[in-house]
Design brief:
The complex is a heterodimer of chains A (about 60) and B (about 500). Chain A has about 60 residues and is mainly alpha-helical. Chain A has one domain. The two termini of chain A are about 20 Å apart. Chain B contains 20 helices and no strands. Chain B has one domain: Hydantoin permease (Orthogonal Bundle). In chain B, about 70% of the residues lie in helices and about 0% in strands. Chain B is an all-alpha fold. The relative contact order of chain B is 0.18. Classes of the chains: A mainly alpha (about 60), B mainly alpha (about 500). Chains A and B meet through helix 1 and helix 2 of A and helix 7 and helix 14 of B.
């Protein structure tokens, strides 16, 4: 689960840059870019708190 | 700018260095390089970057001045961390406060805390101002203009009160949560700042009809439309030198002023301080440039790209307002607004917390909770006055200047005094709670520097460099006078304890 969340978070970071780049190159409109970034932001803040700053399960067991 | 001042007092639970307050950091507690990369990169991307970028545009920077100036100035800042702060931090491994107490006595540390705490209040106030501009976009009340020094509407006062109250209460109750949340927000926030730059570049390309086929085309666009070098009357007039010195000294309190001794004492190696480059080139290069591009487009749209147009607009009071909330909303919509609020909140919060700790050291009988609430109220009051945020360039320079002489004192005490046959950590050896060499060097240097600004027309951005040498020379001269006068009375006792301390705390120096 942790790995999946980490992949989701990483994907959101990539998209945070990708959507403005698509707008820059005229592939995406301004309104779509803004909505997409809002969704990316929401997903980032839903997914990331579950792994960032938390101990890995293996470390927890070891301690 | 950032709040990246480490543990201001003994019980900061989350900042690097929340322990070993009165002893060198032991080997087992030292940290690796990666810890410092993440910390510096995250903490130097703050709400105030969104103010500083636009203020550069108002100060009339040209493309060459701002790009080259920031590259050079930030490199000098990194070198200051590497050559001034880290070598002492990784040898003595003491907090700034404990090291200063040894040199100058307990009462000097209290004075330092008072100066630091007040500066923090103004800094955090500017951060609350930044967040409140985003609230204004949602609720639609009149936001302050560039000319407003005082609150301009009831809506603004209420917005600042609400933002300030929330930040203050969280600082008093839940600092750990904010610190954790700030770490989560940091990577996203850095990339949102990058998004500001990308989107505003698109606006410029569309508005000017530029065909960008090479880096040369981009540079031409930057020179002719983005950073045109047109200065707004009433604002500082920035050249290449201004940008270099501003970038170098934006965090002067931390490197030259030695506040980051408390952070870098945890570094296994002195060279780990190069991690500060992550903070400088993400927060003080990319973020400043991106934020300035957002505002530059407002100027471009208003036709303010020539001297005559800007002068007549300034006379008519028609200069666009450098308000982060509306700028971010226009660029990235709600995600941009969330970034402004979070950037202001996550950086104002620890700043208020640390200001509270600084003040609590002065009134230790009052609880930290009450002191933090009081500090937050003072900060919120400051935030109501948009003039503080609008004059942030000058304030940042003043903040660095205020604490710089203490950095010179620590440097000279550590490296130079023993070579001159004088005693290091003199207050500790002599049992003083206040020493004239430190107090004299600090206050006389400030008086000379502010005098140069006031009467010699030297801008505040440039006085800190000669000020460091003035402070250093004064401290040497006053230490010589104080210690030689004291020497006949207690030479034997002092000599014995001095050699013992030198061997235990700084055996690597000689």
């Amino acid at each position: 689960m942790r790995l999946i969340l980490q992949i989701v978070s990483l994907a959101m970071l990539v998209l945070t840059v990708l959507f403005p780049m698509l707008y820059l190159f005229g592939v995406m409109g301004e309104v779509a870019m803004k909505w997409s970034l809002l969704i990316v932001t929401v997903v980032w803040f839903l997914a990331t708190p579950f792994w960032m700053g938390r101990e890995k399960p293996a470390n927890r067991q070891a301690s | 700018m950032s709040d990246m001042t480490p543990d201001t007092a003994d019980n900061d639970p989350t900042a690097v260095g929340g322990e070993y307050e009165r002893q060198p950091v032991p080997e087992r507690s030292r940290l690796g390089f990666k810890n410092f990369i993440g910390m510096y990169a995250g903490e130097h991307t703050a709400g105030t970057e969104l103010m500083i970028g636009p203020l550069f545009v108002l100060a009339g920077v040209s493309a060459f001045d701002v790009v080259v100036g920031l590259i050079v100035g930030n490199a000098l800042a990194v070198l200051s961390w590497m050559l001034l702060t880290a070598p002492i931090g990784t040898r003595a491994r003491l907090t700034l406060y404990y090291q200063l107490e040894k040199i100058a006595g307990r009462h000097t540390v209290i004075l330092y805390n008072l100066a630091n705490g007040l500066a923090f209040c103004f800094l955090a106030g500017a951060m609350i101002t930044v967040s409140a501009t985003a609230v204004g976009v949602w609720f639609g009340f009149p936001l302050p203009t560039l000319a407003d020094l005082a609150p301009n509407s009831l809506g603004w006062v209420l917005a600042v009160l609400v933002v300030g109250a929330v930040i203050t209460i969280v600082a008093a109750y839940g600092y750990r949560f904010v610190s954790w949340f700030a770490n989560i927000a940091a990577p996203w926030m850095v990339l949102i700042f990058l998004g500001f730059g990308i989107v505003s570049l698109k606006w410029f390309i569309d508005a000017t009809g530029t065909e960008v086929g090479s880096a040369g085309d981009l540079w031409a666009l930057a020179e002719t439309a983005i950073w045109t070098g047109v200065h707004v009357p009433g604002q500082p007039d920035f050249t290449l030198w201004h940008v270099i010195f501003f970038a170098w000294f934006a965090n002067m309190a931390m490197h030259v002023g030695m506040a980051d001794l408390s952070v870098l004492r945890f570094a296994r190696k002195s060279w780990y301080s190069i991690a500060s480059a992550a903070g400088m080139y993400v927060g003080h290069f990319m973020a400043w440039l991106a934020a300035s591009m957002l505002f530059a487009f407002q100027m471009y749209q208003a036709g303010l790209t020539s001297e005559s147009a800007v002068v007549s607009a300034a006379r008519a009071g028609n200069i666009p307002n450098p308000l982060p909330g509306p700028l971010a909303d226009q660029a990235l919509g709600v995600a941009g607004l969330i970034c402004v609020i979070i950037a202001g909140w996550t950086t104002a919060n620890p700043t208020i917390y640390r200001a509270g700790l600084a003040f609590q050291a002065i009134v230790p009988h009052v609880s930290r909770f009450r002191v933090t609430i009081g500090t937050g109220l003072l900060t919120t009051f400051v935030a109501m006055f948009p003039g503080v945020a609008m004059q942030l360039l000058g304030f940042v320079a003043l903040y660095g200047l205020l604490l710089m002489p203490i950095g010179a004192v620590i440097f000279i005490d550590y490296w130079v005094l023993p070579k001159l046959g004088l005693t290091r950590f003199y207050a500790e050896q002599a049992g003083h709670t206040l020493t004239m060499p430190v107090l004299g060097a600090w206050l006389i240097t400030l008086a000379i520097c502010l005098g140069l600004v006031q009467f010699a027309d030297i801008e505040i951005f440039f006085v800190a460099l000669p000020g460091w040498f003035i402070a250093a020379l004064l401290f040497i001269a006053l230490s010589f006078l104080a210690q030689k006068r004291q020497a006949p009375h207690d030479a034997s006792a002092l000599g014995t304890t001095a050699s013992a301390t030198t061997s235990t705390t700084s055996s690597k120096v000689e």
